[in-house]
Amino acid sequence: MLAPVESRSVSPVFVGRTAELETLNDALAQAAAGNPQALVIGGEAGVGKTRLVEEFATAAAREDAVVVLGGCVEIGADGLPFAPFSTALRALRRELPDELAAAAAGQDEELARLLPELGETSPARGTDRSDEEGMARLFELTARLLERVAAARTVVVALEDLHWADASTRHLLAYLFRTLRTGRLVVLATYRSDDIHRRHPLRPLLAELDRVRTVRRIELGRFNRAEVGRQIAGILATEPDPAQVDEIFERSDGNAFFVEELACAAHEGCRPGLTDSLRDLLLVRVEGLPESAQRIARIVAEGGSTVEYRLLAAVAQLAEDDLIEALRAAVNANILIAAPDGDGYRFRHSLVREAVGDDLLPGERSRLNRRYAEALEADPTLVPADVRVMRLASYWYHAHDPAKALPAVLDASVAARRRHAHSEQLRLLERAMELWDSTPEDVRATLRPVDYTEVYPPCGCDPETAPLRYLDLMAEAAVAGRLCGERERALKITKRALHLLEEEGDPLRAAWFWVQRSRLVQAQARGDGWKELGTARELVRGLPPSEVHAEVLAIAANWSMLRNPGPEAMSAAERAVEYARMVGAEDIELNARLTLGGLMVDAGQIEAGLAQMYDVRNEVLARGLTAVVGRSHVNLPSVLEGIGRSEESAGILREGLRLTQTMGLRDSEAWVWTNLAESLISLGRWDEAAEAAVNARGTGQSAKPRGGGSNWLGHLALARGEVAQAARHLAAARASYGSHDPMPQNNLPMSCLAIGIAAAEGRLLDARTETDRALSAGFPPGTHRYAWPLLRAAAVAESDARALPAAQEGRAAFLERLSETVRKLTTGVPLWLAYEKWTRAELDRADSRATPDTWSDVVTAFEALERPYDLARVRHRLAEALLEIGGDDERARAAELLRLARATATHLGARPLADATAQLAQRARLALTAAPPPPDPSDALGLTTRERDVLRLVSAGRTNRQIAEELFISPKTASVHVSNILGKLGVSGRGEAAAVAHRMGLFPAETLTSGTRS
After folding, report:
1. Residue-wise pLDDT tens digits, 562-577
2. Cα gap 177→142, rounded to integer Å
3. Which one of 92, 186, 397, 920 is at 20 to 30 Å from 458 when CA atoms are compared?
């Protein structure tokens, strides 16, 4: 909770803000009901944001909510990565230690990047290599942590001074605001609106939050005159003179903090009109302090948002009694206050700190930073361990000492990287490049590569003995820029690096930078990246095995698998596996083996390829290799789905969902949802498939899984007769995929959907145009799983339009082209063979050559597969062919096929197929539902089932004993039943009862006799 250490305001009276407090209290009530709330509070400096948060926190605590505060920390001009979240989580750990430990269980090491108290993060080199989802994983785990902690108790997380927030903090906050789904949680953030100039880094985040409907914005305005009067009365503890209120209101313009300063100045005898500016007003009370207290204020102003007491003592170099006396004077004057944790001091308001800091002389500022840095170097325990390297780097940099600043900045960049704070890592590395030339050569010679950048060769030789080079910094910065989304900056860095390498003759380094450019070009939608990869391959050709060489081959093989699979891709994958094993690059080897397995399946080595992929999946799970978990649970089920093993695919995808959600791999999770939607469509579980596709569109940051989700929603909509909706989904899929990097796995399903939509709308020529475009591109190995549904869709369109006059022009040539393609396409698995039979049958139907035998083969092929919708469609076609022949047997068989097809269509909601079966049955005068049985006449007599059985035997002439034996009852019970029957029939004897049964036709198959059997 907020520590009740100090009052941050002079006035004991909280003035106004009724509407704002109502909004906050409503958010608290909503959160208590299990609906997480997000709020952003903006207002100019001094308007009262902190006081409003304090009042709300007090009210929330009264409702038994846990309130934790995190403030964005400013050291010079540098924000500490994730500082407000680290502070808030630390406070949450103090308040709810057991709940937080339980919520973090299993992810302690990852969450320790934000809260080091949870455990140790591995400092080993290369541990984050290729961890493209590292930052997103940390964000997802943080969101789930907060949701779990707030599952049983309301939690308020307040983050102040967002205008100082580092980029990583801003990204994490935006992620939380977008993704929090459950929990009794309120997350609110404050920012200083008058600081948000046009190029301020917070401005894009505020614009983004304006588009998030679940985020509430509160803008604090200034006080009116009446509110200023009440505030002054609270400060002075007496009713102020109206003239004084007018003067202060006019001078402060209703700004709460300036009202306080002006009221205090007036109360202490300083006329506010004597100052030329409000900044001068802020300095008046500082300058009224004893010289020692003024000096302490200047030291604290340059030390950061909060300065620890021991660090302050080391920098001030005063006797402890003198230091405490100076601090007491500053605190009593309400200039400084004790920090919330009680271990340091801060300015009561940041405006005062800024005024004091701006009043420092340039030499004085750098001297203070040097003394801070020297004190921290002499005793690293003066500040918390998790902020030490960042603070030291900032102090040395602002001390303008390159020899000291460069090593400190490099250490800080490593710390930022290990926290997945890649934006701060990039800023620090750019600062290191700025310092490079001004750092003495002898200092640079002592530096060593402190962190490997993926597979980049740090110095082209032994990194333990060779010095760090400028290119090494550029490599680190390029990766940091790619991972934090600053891709334009990363592209510029790689361009400069390649220019420097032109004269060095270092092919491995150059190849590495070309691989980075390939990734960046693709990410920026400027191309498919193959040109850059091709350059990298040429540079490593003929070189000995290395990690760079292995990665180039692995990435090239994966690129080809997705876009142009073939023997060359297989060869690259095999060599990538071999080279990665030789140099011990585990993750490159596993990724290359996944690619190799997929290519083997494409080449017809199905079981061997699947075994390779299953082995990788099992190794990844056994060794907990997060970086490969996602891909192994995306690629393997995709391959299984492609060869018709949908149930097997869905099982692995369900496991993949569990793993990616547990590990916070949101982008991988999105791909899993996309592939699961496809498999569930095949299995006829369409409602589940639609849910999976929607989840694919709403999970992760990557656009391509969203395209996949939209594509499968389009296929579902088309099959259900929602053609306009299908067209909208197709447009959304195309927008998500873009046109800069075409891939068959994306384009062919979209073309198949486009053909179906065009055919449904009667645009046969458009369907032909879309088909021609796909046929012209060709279907290389690896694309057959997508090619067969497309060819089938084109053949169906032609088959259904065979009688249309408008379809005749160009029809023969188009059908011949389709037939030629079908003849060339492989049918290596039962699914593809079934599609081939179906496509050929449709082409025969288009030429009026299809027979029942033709369609029987197709039905038989699909009966062995897990595709109920496809089976229903071809059953409908077979029924149609049977009815064209006629005959009682054919009609009976057709009726049964139509009943089965219609049952499937009705279950799936496939309205066009259901309508088609009903229309065909109606034309053939077939009843698709069996006629209801005639009513049982015995029902009108009120007979029970047992009495009916007895009457049947009475009508057959049985005695009571015979009835008892046949029905396994006693003769006495039989006699009772007979008596009841006679009463219900209104007759006096057994013979009359038999006559009634005969007359009513109760037992037409029975022969009635009047005697007994011998």
Report:
1. 888 878 889 999 999 9
2. 12
3. 397
